[in-house]
Each structure stands twice: as structure tokens, then as C-alpha cells.
Amino acid sequence: MSDTTEQPAEVQLTPEEIEHLENLEEAMRDVVDPELGINVVDLGLVYGLKVEDQIAKIDMTLTSPACPLTDVIEDQARNALVRSGLVEDLQINWVWMPPWGPDKITEDGRDQLRALGFTV
């Protein structure tokens, strides 16, 4: 028996697949956190994004597990990705570990928050 843990093989993406993921990420910038008014990408709420069989699968969190606005964010994501024709369907996996914190906000997100009067 081996002491090493088997790691999953890294997936090699084609240039077209990489471009598609970049387009999906850009489209997710249209999804805005209703409380803060900043997009979910720059807030650091999107933890993972992949496409399987034309279904966007997103690992995503919220600023608080008690946030009552998951339906609003999910509807915005559906508009951005499915109704725009980028994918056929969408699945959001709401995750709470690791917990979201201000350290996850991008520099663009910080600039947007500062413009709204927040100190970050």
C-alpha cells in the first residue's frame, strides 16, 4: 500500500474552452450583489467556474450565509449566462468554506467600494 494520495489529473483546456470560460467570467460581472452594488466576480464571491455539457457549474459564496438574496443572484446569473446564449443551463453550488472575507475582493472591487464610500 502506498503512502501517497492520488491527485486528480489536471484538465487541459483548449484555447476555445479558455476563451469560453473568460467570456462566462466577464458575463458574471453583470451579476451584482444587491446589498453592495458590486459585481460578484470583483467581490470574490465566485470560487470556481466550469462548463460540462453546456451547463455552467459555479461554486459561489455570499458575503453572509444568512443572505436572503440567493434567488436574486441566481436569477441574475441565469440572465447573464443562459438567456444570453453562452450556455444551455446553470447550476450554482453555494459553498461556505472557505468563508468569504474582504481579502477575496479584487483591486477593481476595492476601487468600486471606495467610490461608494466604503473603507477597504
Automatic annotation (TrEMBL):
Residues 22-83 form the MIP18 family-like domain. Gene3D superfamilies: Fe-S cluster assembly (FSCA) (3.30.300.130). Pfam families: FeS_assembly_P. This is Metal-sulfur cluster assembly factor. It comes from the Bacteria. It comes from Nocardia huaxiensis.
